[in-house]
Amino acid sequence: MAINPNTDFSSGSVYTADQANRFPRGVMARNTATATDASITAEEVQITGSSFTAVANRYYKITYFEPNPNGGTGYFAFRIRQTNLAGTVLNTAYQTVGAGIERQSHMIWVGTFSAGTVNVVATAQQTAGTGSLVRSSTVAAYLLVEDIGPA
User: Fold this and answer.
1) In this predicted model, what pLDDT tens digit does every residue of 102-147 receive, in sequence order?
2) Which of 50, 51, 56, 109 has the most CB atoms around its CB within 10 Å?
3) Taking the domains of the chain in order of start, what are their residue ranges?
4) DSSP readout, 28-56?
5) Per CATH, the architecture of 29-35+46-150 is what?
């Protein structure tokens, strides 16, 4: 699909509904997790997003952030999935664990959905050993869905 951005507005021009519909619509859903999960082995849901109504032919940007993954001897696999733990994987990020490793995971997916109700979840899996996701009320994990404009 070709992107159809707004053009420059000029003084005295008529502002149309078509132009208004080309603007981003902003935050569609935002969910946080503040409790530490210290028992991660198999893939499990970390954040369940709020349902939102997607409009066909619009781009959505989904951001998943974990502030402090650590533990285990393998690596973390963080995923954004549609619907639930068994849903379609939209994106995956891998985080190595160990001394001196940056302890944040931040992932973004940009794409479109069919029109209708959509829910996304953020999941985590530790591939060897048991991992922890350390969070607090001041350092929370989050899952954010934004409408960024027409496709």
Assistant:
1) 578 899 999 999 999 999 999 999 988 888 899 999 999 999 999 9
2) 109
3) 29-35+46-150
4) EEEEEE-S-EEEE-S-EEEEEPPPEEE-T
5) Sandwich (2.60)
